[in-house]
């Protein structure tokens, strides 16, 4: 198994751009709150560790993961963030609800990213059971909230580079 005995959240902090000037949104689903709020803590702390100002981190709580795209769009309209991080946890059950929710969230966030030209980060755990979720929300495989924050900082930096016209895309 790819994740065996590895903390997948390790990264080279020195290689990450400063988040000091950046504006972020974090949208967090309250379903499975003991998991998603741990993702949120890892995400928020990582943004601050890399220089983001608390007043530039805008948080919105939504009921469930299915509501993440709608919440993210509202937040983006209010605060004009450089990137929006969406955190949730959809645990597989006896029915196929997880597939519908996960697919809808992935498609919704992809559409928002493409339409807006800013990153909407997919920070949704899709585990088979609760233990797999705990392992990835501050457990033995790290915290996917940390990884979502790192991805957001990298994407925000790319967006800002584009604005300054430093690295135009050439074909
Ligand atoms: N939301 C989650 O974030 N995680 C879940 O594991 C989850 N399981 C659900 C299971 C069922 C059968 C239903 C109907 C909803 C579930 N939701 C879950 C809530 C969903 O994301 C959303 O809030 C509601 O469907 C209302 O749109």
What composes the largest sheet? 4 strands, parallel
Distinct ligands: riboflavin
Task: Specify the CATH homologous superfamily.
Answer: Lumazine/riboflavin synthase
Q: What percentage of the residues does DSSP assign to strands (E)? A: 15-25%
Helix-strand pattern, N to C? EHEHEHEHEEH
CATH-defined architecture: 3-Layer(aba) Sandwich
CATH class: Alpha Beta
Number of structurally distinct domains: 1
Number of continuous helical runs: 5
Description of the molecule:
- By secondary structure, the chain is of the alpha/beta class.
- The protein has one domain: Lumazine/riboflavin synthase (Rossmann fold, 3-Layer(aba) Sandwich).
- The protein is built from five helices and six strands; from the N terminus they run βαβαβαβαββα.
- The strands form two sheets. A four-stranded parallel sheet has the order 2-1-3-4, with helices on both faces. A two-stranded antiparallel ribbon has the order 5-6.
- Helix 1 (33-49) packs across helix 5 and helix 2 packs parallel to helix 3.
- The termini are far apart.
- The mean pLDDT is 93.
- The site of riboflavin has 14 residues, from strand 3 and helix 3.
- Riboflavin is lined by residues 29, 31-32, 63-67, 88-91, 97, 101.
């Amino acid at each position: 198994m790819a994740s065996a005995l590895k903390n997948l959240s390790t990264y080279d902090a020195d290689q990450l751009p400063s988040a000091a000037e950046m504006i972020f949104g974090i949208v967090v689903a309250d379903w499975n709150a003991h998991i998603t709020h741990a993702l949120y803590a890892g995400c928020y702390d990582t943004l601050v560790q890399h220089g983001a100002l608390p007043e530039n981190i805008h948080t919105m709580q939504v009921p469930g993961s299915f509501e993440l795209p709608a919440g993210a769009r509202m937040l983006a309209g209010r605060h004009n963030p450089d990137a929006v991080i969406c955190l949730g946890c959809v645990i597989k059950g006896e029915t196929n609800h997880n597939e519908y929710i996960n697919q809808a969230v992935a498609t919704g966030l992809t559409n928002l990213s493409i339409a807006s030209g800013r990153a909407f980060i997919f920070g949704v755990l899709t585990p088979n059971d609760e233990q797999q979720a705990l392992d990835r929300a501050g457990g033995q495989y790290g915290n996917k909230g940390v990884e979502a924050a790192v991805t957001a900082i990298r994407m925000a930096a790319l967006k800002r580079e584009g604005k300054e016209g430093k690295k135009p895309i050439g074909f």
